[in-house]
Amino acid sequence: MGPIKQKALINVDLGEGYGNLKCGPDEELLPLIDIANIACGFHSGDPLIMSSTVRACISHSVLIGAHPGLPDLQGFGRREMKLSPEELTAMTIYQVGALKGFLDKEGVELNHVKPHGVLYGMMCRDLEVARAVMRGVPAGVKVFGLAGTRMEEAAREEGVEFAAEMYGDVKYSADGMLVIDRVKKPWKNEDVEKHVTQQLTTQSVTATDGSTVQLPVKDYPLSLCCHSDSPGCVEIVKTARAVADRFNKEHGYS
To answer: Phi and psi of 201, rounded to 5°?
Structure first.
């Protein structure tokens, strides 16, 4: 399919601590990224962490999005749950609204909404779940998701702007879906470089079974996602950043 046709940005999930518990090295990651997805309290994050993370993002000129998840603190939002469409819509409104309160206080716009963990995976596969979450997204706000899945379909149906993602530290299955681990596994830097380079330059990825899977990102705005709870996450993000910067320079994306 050839290289992607848009600038590659980097997004990372931040603010995923809780109380005195810290998750990732947010302070080290912020200078390396373009976009942050801030946890909104259901899978992780709390009011003080949300507030401080918003201010930290502003100080680094990082765009801010809401990162709503399933109500599962113990499982970090990576265990599947059965909720009604009404519950899914309401919990999305609730979490996005919580983050938006902190953004409004700082006079900053909400850039996007990106569902977290297993909720994201459920939306990729289940159109009813995807529709319900999309209905909780504020008007005029885009959703980050996996192109070619039910997420994209639901966004189109519900009139929600869609932005595509690729992944720097997540593997893909043969059907093009993400392999969502409850606990993140380490990556070698050379594997991250190969994984990201393949996606940007060929719009494809090598799946866990060794097959090549096409990634239909089309002309959507695009960013590469990495995770702050991956072992060695700073080096992962540095590697993804270097690949993205090189790609952008070679293709004239300033």
So the answer is: -90, -20
